[in-house]
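Give me the fold.
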Amino acid sequence: MSDMNFIDSLNDFGLTRQEGTIYSALLNHGEMTGYEVAKDTGISRSNVYAALTALVEKGAACLIEGESTKYRPVEITLFTSNRISELQKAAAWLEKHAPKKVIAADGYITITGAKNIKNKIREMLGKTELRLYMMATADVLGEFKDELSALVAAGKKVVLLTKDFKLAGAKIYETKPDDGQLRFIADSAYVLTGELTGDEHDTCLYSGQKNLVEVMKEALKDKITLLGGK
């Protein structure tokens, strides 16, 4: 992973890009003064001290008093595990106190962005009770191999239309999907279809609408028949 991706990923743990840049510098050098951080990163001293204060408050650094005030990074594993623990507690509180409203599942929902689409796939996999049919490239399926393996282990029927992807216990029909092509049916009740290339502009349609589910089922059945399946 490049430094740029490392810093971007820290955003998922509550650090701004500037804070991530400074945290990365601390991890590279160990204890540093604000002056040293500013010199190393090229960030103005006023912004450096504000960011260092924020890093201490967020649990990514600690203050070391001595002849000169220095900042020491909290080891990355400890920082991320602490943040995950805090988020789990926050998530539990939110789930308990969030307003409850039933959302109809038979409409059409457009999901945009690779990250959001992947989150929807994980949600659908987690809720699959009986069977799933999924057509996607090996790269896409590889991102969900653990979830797919868990479904197989739980006795769920897993049917995949793909190429150069192996999963013990799943029924796999060898075919080469178009790049980014995604077709996913869960429990003959929910459909996710569209494009997943890893781009923020990727778009998929999600629905529990019976007509769309039936059309998708027939299309995949026809594909399987052409591939010599039943």
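The first strand starts at residue 61 and ends at 64.
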